[in-house]
Amino acid sequence: MKKFNFYLVTDTHYFEPSLGASGKAFDEYMSREQYFMAESSDIAKAVFADIAADNETEYVIIPGDLSKNGEIESHKSFIKELYKLREAGKKIFVITAGHDYNKKSRAFVNDECIEAEGTPFCILSDLYKDFGYSQALSVDEKTLSYVAELSDGIRLLAINCDAENNPKGTVDERLSEWIKCQLDEARNARCEVIAICHYPVIPPVPVFELVGDAKLKNWRNTATLLADNGVKLILTGHMHIQSINKFTTEKGNTVVDICTSCLTGSPAKYRKISYSSERIEVNSIDVPEFRSETHGVPLDEFFDNQFRKSIVNRINNIFKGDGILKKLGRKTVNSLKVGTIGRFLFIKVDNSLKKTKIIDLAGEIGVAIFKGDQPYIKGTPVGDAFDKLFDRVGFILGKVETKLSKNGEKICLKEMLMNTVGNNKGFSDNNGIFSFKE
């Protein structure tokens, strides 16, 4: 087959600004939020304008969390932007997810959090009928998963693992049977299949294997189902992270999972992808300048600062309160330095790290993990510090490993953690060419 080119945009979290996004309650909410809310509509409009200007690429795929939190007005406004993109000649396919339906949602006006009208799950396919559902060859009505023809010889399998009355992040036996049926039909029609799913199918970084909401439950089953039935590529979101991962089944079939960041928060990227039977070419693109005020701060710094702030504030929130222990914990966590920990554990750390506060380093590492291509490998000051730390507390890790290991599969926590703070995969999470023949 010839190359199929498309844009991948995930987790737009579009919020209709007229609902209200200001005041004390809003500021308090945003102090722990990774991505921007008030600016989200301007960001989406700027990205869509750039996509519309590309006359060579006509497809746009968006795998879920289209709205901030299921506000019906956010959906209506976002859909208007999708229609503008369609009028520019783009063919758009979306799937919905947990942030797209809600009985009640929130807005912020006059220093207070107020209630906003939500969106029932049952109307989502009607709202987005022109962006996948009306073109569908088959729809699973329970989850709103569907299959549609993208172009001659290529189909889109849109898996909704985040539907109402269905455990979040789950592809159960019934949905798996529906998926298998669709893949059989595609094979009989001699069609290639690209899949999308809101949740990552493969854990984006190794430690996310231990985080229940960070990937599909029983993800190996779904990855095997897809790969052994001809799917080579799945596009995912949910975790707001830049990552590319491969999974090879016992039969030797490989599927590549491209998980992409939230559009409205660090690292604020979307992707342009070229797909063929032999390989995929991936290019990550930064969100362009948009209309909202960034107070003269460069865009990457603007997004990163919000993410760092959210990490620091979430840590501090653990020690929220007026009790003596809470105050002591808060003071300690905000003043403790890497050099102090090193001396306490008899670990030699690089001079460049000694005066760095632990809480600041946590923010930097968090941002780096979600940007992909994590730099903290062995041979770097931070990577070496982690290597020594994990060796020092090896007896504790060993006890935890025993409890976490299941079905005879032993977990190596040190390796898992080192490969989370440092990219040791041998390829980029952001850009590159990936062959299916390797």
- Architecture (CATH level 2) name of the largest domain: 4-Layer Sandwich
Pattern of helices and strands: EHHEHEEEHEEEHEHEEEEEHHHHHHHE
Strand content: 15-25%
> Structural class of the helix and strand makeup?
alpha/beta
Tell me, what is the CATH class of the largest domain?
A: Alpha Beta
Give the strand tally. Answer: 15
What does this structure look like?
This protein has helices spanning 24-30, 40-52, 72-87, 124-127, 173-188, 219-227, 299-318, 324-335, 338-344, 358-371, 381-392, 394-404, 413-421; strands at 4-8, 59-63, 91-95, 102-109, 112-119, 136-140, 145-151, 154-159, 192-197, 233-236, 243-248, 254-259, 269-275, 279-286, 432-435. With 438 residues, it is of the alpha/beta class. It has two domains: 4-286, 4-Layer Sandwich (Purple Acid Phosphatase, chain A, domain 2); 299-426, no CATH class. A hairpin with a 2-residue loop joins strand 7 and strand 8. Helix 2 (40-52) runs parallel beside helix 3 (72-87) and helix 7 (299-318) crosses helix 10. It is globular, with a radius of gyration of 22 Å. The mean pLDDT is 95.
